[in-house]
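Input record, target 12 of the design panel.
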């Protein structure tokens, strides 16, 4: 008689006593064999799972390296951008100060121009 079990492995089942009844010894032998088969199947499954995990680690390792490199690159870019933003902020502050100084100077020039024009008019009339 042929039986297919968990991994489709052909296995012959021995004939039991001539009267077709299973004895306690036959039952214990069958139970022991079944336990061995389960352990073998578990060991094979564990080996397959280990191989699968190694394969997945192998496949995902480049992605992990790329991810780490990307985060390093991003960190460097942000550090440089922080420096550039700091420089830009300094430039903007200096520009604001210069604009205020130019406004004051232009106001003084307008004031001086008005005074000079007034003086020139008064000298012409005299």
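The sequence produced for target 12 reads:
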């Amino acid at each position: 008689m042929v039986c297919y079990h968990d991994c489709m492995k052909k296995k012959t089942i021995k004939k039991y006593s001539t009267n077709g009844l299973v004895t306690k010894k036959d039952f214990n032998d069958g139970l022991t064999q079944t336990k061995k088969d389960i352990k073998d199947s578990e060991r094979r499954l564990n080996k397959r799972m280990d191989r699968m995990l190694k394969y997945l680690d192998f496949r995902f390792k480049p992605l992990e390296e790329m991810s780490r490199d990307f985060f390093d690159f991003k960190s460097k870019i942000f550090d440089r951008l922080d420096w550039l933003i700091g420089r830009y902020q300094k430039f903007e502050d200096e520009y604001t100060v210069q604009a205020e100084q130019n406004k004051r100077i232009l106001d003084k020039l307008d004031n001086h121009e008005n005074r000079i024009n007034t003086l020139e008019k008064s000298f012409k009339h005299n």
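The first helix runs from residue 24 to 125.
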